[in-house]
Amino acid sequence: MSTTASAGLPASTSQFHPGYDTCTKVTAICRVEYTTLGYYPNEGVNIFLAIGFGLCAILTLGIGIWKRTWGYSIAITAGCILECAGYAARAVLSQNPWQASAFKTQIVSIILGPTLICIGLYLTLKHIISTLSPSLSPFRPKFYPLFFVPADVSCLVIQAIGGGIAAAAGKDNYSLLQQGNRVIIAGIVLQVVVLATFGILSAIFLLRAKKHFRSFPEGEETQEKQTWTDKKTKMFLWAMAGAYSALLIRCIYRIAEMAGGWGNEIMQDEPSFVVLESFMVLIACVLFTGFAPGVWFPWMSHSEKVNPRLRAEREGGGGQQGHEMGETSSGNEKVVGV
C-alpha cells in the first residue's frame, strides 16, 4: 500500500513528495487531491455506518450469548467491530484527510472485516446441511468450514502480502508498487472465486433439498421436512442468500476499485464506495443480525433449551453413542462444533 500521493499528480518534486509521511494536514502543497482517497470523506455517512456496525456487533454478541451460537456470533461480531473501527477512522479523515493512522486503520479494518463476516456465512451452511439432509450435499457438512474458512483467510493473507510489497515501494519504486497492487488484486479475485464456489455448492444443495422434500408423499412428515417447510427457516435462508449476494457484490467492486492502483478514479469516487462497499457490507450485517440463527434457525444453537434435536439426543437412551459417532438417530450427521 503506497502512502504517497497518487501517480501522475503534479505535486511531487525532487525536493518534496506529498504523502502521509510528509503531510500532516491539508495545506497549499498538501492538498486533499493528493491523498490516496482524493476527497474529504462524508462525516455524517461514516458516523452513521460506524453506529450501524457497532449496533450489529452488540446485538449479534448479545443474541449469541443468549442462544449459544458461538462460532457464528464471534465471527460476525468481530467483523462488525472492525467495520465500526474502519468507519470511525473515516469520520476522522473527514476532518483531516492526511491523518496517517486513521487512513491505515480504515484500510486494514474495512478489508479484514468482511473476511470475518464471510466466516459466519460458511459456518451457517454446515448447519443447514446437517439439519436438513447431509446426503443431498456434494460434500459432508464439516467440509464447508474446513475448506472455506482457510480459503477465506488465505485471500486475506495474499492481500496483506500485496500491501506489504506496495508499502515497501516507497516514493520512487513505481514498478514494485504495481507488483504489490497486482498481488492485492489476485487476493481479491481469489476471494470472489471462493465466494462464487460457495454459492454454487449452496445452490446445488438447496435445489436438491427442494426437489427432495417436494417428492414426499402427502401427509408424510419428518423432522427434516418440518424444518424445511417452516416459515422461519424459509426467512432465514432468504436472509442468508441476501447477505451472500451483498458480500459478493462488495468483492466484485473491490476488484474494479483496485484494478487501477492506489488513488485511481474509482477509489476516489466516494458515492460508489459508499453504495458498493459500505452499504453492501452493512446490509449483510443487518441481515445476519436481524435473522440470527439462534432465533430463526435454532438448530445452530448449542443450548438444549433452543435446539430440539440436541435436547432429544441428550434425553434419549442411546444418545451418547450417537453423540460420539457424530450421528443422529436418523443417520444424518449431527450438528456439532461451531
TrEMBL record:
<keyword id="KW-0472">Membrane</keyword>
<feature type="transmembrane region" description="Helical">
    <location>
        <begin position="73"/>
        <end position="93"/>
    </location>
</feature>
<dbReference type="GO" id="GO:0000324">
    <property type="term" value="C:fungal-type vacuole"/>
</dbReference>
<dbReference type="Pfam" id="PF04479">
    <property type="entry name" value="RTA1"/>
</dbReference>
<feature type="transmembrane region" description="Helical">
    <location>
        <begin position="146"/>
        <end position="170"/>
    </location>
</feature>
<feature type="transmembrane region" description="Helical">
    <location>
        <begin position="235"/>
        <end position="256"/>
    </location>
</feature>
<keyword id="KW-0812">Transmembrane</keyword>
<feature type="region of interest" description="Disordered">
    <location>
        <begin position="311"/>
        <end position="338"/>
    </location>
</feature>
<feature type="transmembrane region" description="Helical">
    <location>
        <begin position="105"/>
        <end position="125"/>
    </location>
</feature>
<feature type="transmembrane region" description="Helical">
    <location>
        <begin position="276"/>
        <end position="299"/>
    </location>
</feature>
<protein>
    <submittedName>
        <fullName>RTA1 like protein-domain-containing protein</fullName>
    </submittedName>
</protein>
<feature type="transmembrane region" description="Helical">
    <location>
        <begin position="182"/>
        <end position="207"/>
    </location>
</feature>
<feature type="transmembrane region" description="Helical">
    <location>
        <begin position="47"/>
        <end position="66"/>
    </location>
</feature>
<dbReference type="GO" id="GO:0005886">
    <property type="term" value="C:plasma membrane"/>
</dbReference>
<dbReference type="InterPro" id="IPR007568">
    <property type="entry name" value="RTA1"/>
</dbReference>
<keyword id="KW-1133">Transmembrane helix</keyword>
